[in-house]
Design a protein that fits this description.
The chain contains eleven helices and nine strands. The chain is of the alpha/beta class and about 270 residues long. α3 runs parallel beside α4. About 35% of the residues are buried.
Length: about 270
């Protein structure tokens, strides 16, 4: 329960406005994909990227994903948005291949709701067929919190996606109540360490020990590790010493529009 106040009323009105406009926004391509490079720790070369959705509203301007994503997860629209982003990424990959440009895999976020859909793999494969792509051209990201809802269905869905050649990433590892044991339970290919661990790397020995242990255990389980939210050279140097595989964050590059990302990859 909560006490009703003006702040609560305002947030409810904002959420309802977004819901009223979401279908029209999707049809008009107001949702755009930004790309954030993922860099090899040893070579500092971009070897992948994450697709991040932004809402460029014609009147309100840029709407933060932190506002519209939770609203869409509540009402189920997130499943449509996820597939829209996946198709936009496939379209981008096809265009770049046709131009003869360098192409690296791009990871697409999938909401936990998508994993209740037993036809998820068919929908993703359908998009690959439509744009004449292979499973290695995209990767699929899930958040660790998805495991808490329905672990058996999630594990089954991951195995099915991997059977068709997809790499599956566990996003935000360590953001909730996960334990190192989850690395053994979830059959993911790549673990993405939550930014909160990286933030404390330079000042907190416990965080440093947890990151080192996670990287070591993940490697033992044949998983690679991406550290998110890397913002300083010192953080980068520490992660390199720990044999982290890849990094993502402002130290390398911010999320950027498609044109800027193309130029970065070509460069």
């Amino acid at each position: 329960w909560n006490y009703y106040n003006d702040s609560l009323k305002k947030s409810m009105l904002i959420e309802q406005e977004l819901i009223n406009e979401m279908d029209h926004a999707l049809e008009n391509h107001e949702f755009v994909v930004y790309y954030q490079p993922i860099v090899d720790v040893r070579t500092k070369k971009t070897i992948s990227a994450e697709a991040l959705v932004r809402w460029l509203h014609p009147k309100k301007g840029m709407i933060s994903p932190g506002i519209f994503i939770p609203a869409f997860e509540k009402n189920g629209f997130i499943t449509k948005l996820d597939m829209y982003v996946c198709e936009e990424v496939c379209k981008h990959q096809r265009e770049e291949k046709d131009k003869g440009n360098r192409v690296v895999p791009v990871s697409v976020n999938l909401s936990r709701i998508n994993f209740y859909n037993e036809n998820l793999y068919k929908e993703v494969l359908g998009l690959l067929d439509k744009y004449n792509l292979k499973s290695e051209d995209i990767k699929l990201e899930i958040t660790e919190s998805a495991y808490e809802d329905n672990p058996q269905d999630l594990i089954m869905a991951i195995h099915t996606l991997q059977k068709y050649g997809f790499k599956v990433l566990m996003d935000d590892f360590g953001s909730g109540y996960s334990s190192l044991n989850m690395l053994n339970l979830l059959p993911c290919d790549i673990v993405k360490l939550d930014k909160r661990f990286v933030d404390k790397l330079e000042t907190d020995d416990k965080s440093k020990a947890i990151v080192l242990s996670t990287i070591s255990l993940a490697h033992t389980l044949q998983m690679s590790v991406t550290a998110e939210g890397v913002e300083t050279k010192n953080q980068y140097d520490l992660l390199k010493e720990m044999h982290c595989d890849t990094i993502q964050g402002f130290y390398c590059a911010k999320p950027m529009p498609e044109d800027d990302y193309e130029n970065l990859i070509k460069g």
